[in-house]
Amino acid sequence: MDVTLDKTDPEFWEDTPIGSIVRLTDKQSIDLSMEHGNLDGLSYTVKEIQRIRESNDVLTWLVMSLESNEDRIWLVVKIVDEELSVYAYFASEDFETGNRHDCMTHVDEDDEGEYLDSIWIFQVPDAFDPEEDELIDFMKDFDPLEMKYATAIEWSEDDTDIEYLVKKQGEMHGKVTEIPASDSDLYATVVEFQAEGAKNPEAMLLEVGDVDAEDGGLIRLLLGTEVRLSEIDVLRA
Questions:
Q1: Alpha-carbon distance 224 to 192, whole Å?
Q2: Could you tell me the end-to-end alpha-carbon distance of the chain, in angstroms, rounded to an integer?
Q3: CA distance 86 to 79
Q4: Residue 224's CB: how many other CB atoms inside 10 A?
Q5: Is 100:145 a contact under the CB 8 Å cutoff?
Q6: H-type helices in the chain, by residue range?
Q7: Rounded distance, CA 24 to CA 30, Å?
Q8: Could you tell me how many helices (H) and strands (E) the chain has, helices first?
Q9: 131 or 88: which carries more pLDDT confidence?
Q10: pLDDT tens across 176-197, in order?
Q11: pLDDT tens-digit map of 76-102
């Protein structure tokens, strides 16, 4: 079978084998590699791939889980027709990964009292009446699958307040194919955001879970940046 070596060709990414080595030489990767005493960028191994095909066949995301001895990142290849863009993301340490029910109901406490510490990733349901309802109690009984994701995320980066705004396509959904293959029937929700002037101008809420999961799928908040194809080298396994 012929394998294309053209990184502008979506098939190059669709056919990337597990175990391949990905080297990133974008500015952030170079800066991080300098902390380890080299100028060669950062190298990772492809551990797994989730292929998400949008339900209206508008686009495909290839979500590649990459690991090194130091950390784990996600390389996301977004394919629209024959055009593609590539993003390097890391998981935010300020967001506790969980399913929809977890994020709706997890309670923390500060000097002002108890609050839902992850509810900000969602829009407040229209059925919630702040004059009649307590949000913590309301969310305990609300159907997680009825929640809609936020259209803006307030964030702090290097002591600077920034705002991630949802991209024009909004909340999108699609079927997931896993590599290596699994027996699970998985479905994904993807919400992409962008913030002007941020060190990490790209953000993604990625939810993946079983189609029949009543509490929703596992949600990650990923932050990162778009990467030029010239800043990516792939040594295929």
A1: 11
A2: 15
A3: 9
A4: 23
A5: yes
A6: 10-14, 27-34, 100-105, 135-141
A7: 8
A8: 4, 14
A9: 88
A10: 999 888 888 899 999 999 999 8
A11: 999 998 899 999 999 998 898 999 999
Q: Hunting for tokens 């949600």 — which residue is that?
A: 219
Could you tell me the sign of the dihedral formed by the alpha carbons of 33, 162, 209, 103, in that order?
positive
Query: Domain ranges in the chain?
Result: 10-96+144-235
Give the burial class of 96: count Cβ atoms within 10 A of its Cβ; 0-12 exposed, 13-18 middle, 19 or more buried.
Answer: middle
Is 1's pLDDT higher than 60? no
What DSSP assignment string belongs to 51-104?
EEEETTSS-EEEEEEEE-SS-EEEEEEEEETTEEEEEEEEE-TTS--B-HHHHH
- Helix, strand, coil % in the chain, rounded to nearest 5: 15, 45, 40
CB 99 within 8 A of CB 215: yes
